[in-house]
Amino acid sequence: VKNIKQAEFGRREIEIAEQEMPALMALRKRAQGEKPLAGAKIVGCTHITAQTAVLMETLGALGAQCRWAACNIYSTLNEVAAALAESGFPVFAWKGESEDDFWWCIDRCVNVEGWQPNMILDDGGDLTHWIYKKYPNMFKKIKGIVEESVTGVHRLYQLSKAGKLCVPAMNVNDSVTKQKFDNLYCCRESILDGLKRTTDMMFGGKQVVVCGYGEVGKGCCAALKAMGSIVYVTEIDPICALQACMDGFRLVKLNEVIRQVDIVITCTGNKNVVTREHLDRMKNSCIVCNMGHSNTEIDVASLRTPELTWERVRSQVDHVIWPDGKRIVLLAEVSCRQRSRSCSPFSACGGRKPAVTYLSVFSIQALALIELYNAPEGRYKQDVYLLPKKMDEYVASLHLPTFDAHLTELTDEQAKYLGLNKNGPFKPNYYR
């Protein structure tokens, strides 16, 4: 970690996060007597924030041993990493790692004498990729993978299709509570906060193009529209495209608006969405940022050429200047590795999304780990699975007391009429 002396400060941050994460704390209280993860050796690669620390300490309370690295080179809160290390968690992460540091940290998590992981918790698929590449024999003892990002899930489905996925995997990215809370509501709040903190701009009247109208794109568009921005959307999926139109957004191709927009935001999980050609055609002072997980959406590498000048304005903000004096504002460091967490702190002390909307995915991850670890042999084959709807509903129910919300209960007659169990699940697995 960067500085172990910051541990006390990090511990205070974790304690604050605990107050904002009642669902995970309730799960910890309910399950710690049973120790459902006793014997589990979990290797994790996620954002290391105060909320992640609450998850890790919950997994520890449920009986697991954990080793952790960061999935993003800019989002680590150094003080939180220090607090975790001081309390006995092997953590390998610091804010501002180089690419080599990033892979070194993952390797130190995995490659340790006398310790063999039997569960993987991944965000983006880099940890899973590294084990496949360097230590494939480890999968003989690994019982399952839990993956939370679009990028990582895509990689898992590719492995499954190729017949190379040798353990069961749980796709928690597509659980409803993760999609709606972490992706939609969280990004709806964090996009404005991140842009304000890095650029001090006003949004009223600004022309913005949001690439992708999935849950993240929907959240971004809703926030920007509410602030008075003129919002365009690009999309490849006709269903998402139609949703954008019905929500009042103009559906365009990026080439049609690239010369006039003030802000370009990518939310696709794809590669080369914004190319050098697009960057060349942008207007002066156009702001470019990425809300997706990986650094593939914007072709930043193409800007590292002799004719362009790079100017560091402040942390997380660079000007890229063309020979004629035109400049674009590039956010989240030079590689655009996920602006949403690294640029958008909920408080002044670090990079994270609002805990109250961010916590659902941690509860889901904990339940998914418990499910895969304790599943009888044969329940899950070497494939990618969605979290059962019953667990999705359970995670949502854990949040309701926070809002003093009271569920209506079905009568026996109503349950029979609908053909449902009174305790759920209330919707089929395919219901979104």
TrEMBL record:
<dbReference type="GO" id="GO:0006730">
    <property type="term" value="P:one-carbon metabolic process"/>
</dbReference>
<feature type="binding site">
    <location>
        <position position="123"/>
    </location>
    <ligand>
        <name>substrate</name>
    </ligand>
</feature>
<feature type="binding site">
    <location>
        <position position="148"/>
    </location>
    <ligand>
        <name>substrate</name>
    </ligand>
</feature>
<dbReference type="InterPro" id="IPR042172">
    <property type="entry name" value="Adenosylhomocyst_ase-like_sf"/>
</dbReference>
<feature type="binding site">
    <location>
        <position position="235"/>
    </location>
    <ligand>
        <name>NAD(+)</name>
    </ligand>
</feature>
<feature type="binding site">
    <location>
        <position position="178"/>
    </location>
    <ligand>
        <name>substrate</name>
    </ligand>
</feature>
<dbReference type="InterPro" id="IPR036291">
    <property type="entry name" value="NAD(P)-bd_dom_sf"/>
</dbReference>
<dbReference type="GO" id="GO:0005829">
    <property type="term" value="C:cytosol"/>
</dbReference>
<feature type="binding site">
    <location>
        <position position="49"/>
    </location>
    <ligand>
        <name>substrate</name>
    </ligand>
</feature>
<protein>
    <submittedName>
        <fullName>Putative adenosylhomocysteinase 3</fullName>
    </submittedName>
</protein>
<dbReference type="GO" id="GO:0033353">
    <property type="term" value="P:S-adenosylmethionine cycle"/>
</dbReference>
<comment type="similarity">
    <text>Belongs to the adenosylhomocysteinase family.</text>
</comment>
<dbReference type="Pfam" id="PF00670">
    <property type="entry name" value="AdoHcyase_NAD"/>
</dbReference>
<dbReference type="InterPro" id="IPR020082">
    <property type="entry name" value="S-Ado-L-homoCys_hydrolase_CS"/>
</dbReference>
<keyword id="KW-0554">One-carbon metabolism</keyword>
<feature type="domain" description="S-adenosyl-L-homocysteine hydrolase NAD binding">
    <location>
        <begin position="183"/>
        <end position="350"/>
    </location>
</feature>
<keyword id="KW-0520">NAD</keyword>
<feature type="binding site">
    <location>
        <position position="182"/>
    </location>
    <ligand>
        <name>substrate</name>
    </ligand>
</feature>
<dbReference type="InterPro" id="IPR015878">
    <property type="entry name" value="Ado_hCys_hydrolase_NAD-bd"/>
</dbReference>
<dbReference type="InterPro" id="IPR000043">
    <property type="entry name" value="Adenosylhomocysteinase-like"/>
</dbReference>
<dbReference type="Pfam" id="PF05221">
    <property type="entry name" value="AdoHcyase"/>
</dbReference>
<feature type="binding site">
    <location>
        <begin position="214"/>
        <end position="219"/>
    </location>
    <ligand>
        <name>NAD(+)</name>
    </ligand>
</feature>
